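Hi R.,

Here's the chain you asked about this morning:
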Amino acid sequence: MKDKLRGIAASSNAAFASAKKEDVTLTDGYLTVGGNAATRVAYADLLRQPEAATAVTVEAKPGPEGQKYSMYSFSVHFAEVHVHQLTGEVRVSKLVSCADAGTIVNEKTAGNQMKGGAVGGIGMALMEHATIDDRFGRYVTKDFADYHVPVHADSPDVQVAFVNQPDPHVNALGTKGIGEIAIIGVAPAIANAVFNATGKRIRELPITPDKLI
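And here is the predicted structure, written out as tokens:
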């Protein structure tokens, strides 16, 4: 795009006609040669010219590293639960989540994302359930009055740990994503903890009291 703008500017400014592409800079809405303010021309003035209709398409493709290395993020989750013997109510008393997601750029925000995933996993494991009225194809649990999600009272102490080792094959920072891995292992960890506490293996979520008593 810079080279095309230089070509448009060259029709009315000799400085751009003889300039090399690497000498042309785009700064603060102006095209200049070598940073010399005397040669600058505004983008707006260039784009008013009839020949200014132009487009540049650049395609970025992954390198060969993806064929040689595994670049996934990984996580592990541990859950401690209390199960009421009479009512079958399950309370998660503690969660520990550990992630290997390359370089952790900001431990606070990454930790908050892991904690948010943990709370979402509690909802998946214990309360969130979509019920559809087959007669009309509509959701019965269509609002927060009927579709239950975890609140502060359902959220235990969540401890987060990171391996924090850069992956040099992914990108220059060695970072990877933690969006999905923050939640996918939480519900299975809770289900295993419920099995450990009750001896009942529940294979359908959510794990509601009626499935335990």
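One quick note: The chain has a mean pLDDT of 89.

Cheers,
M.
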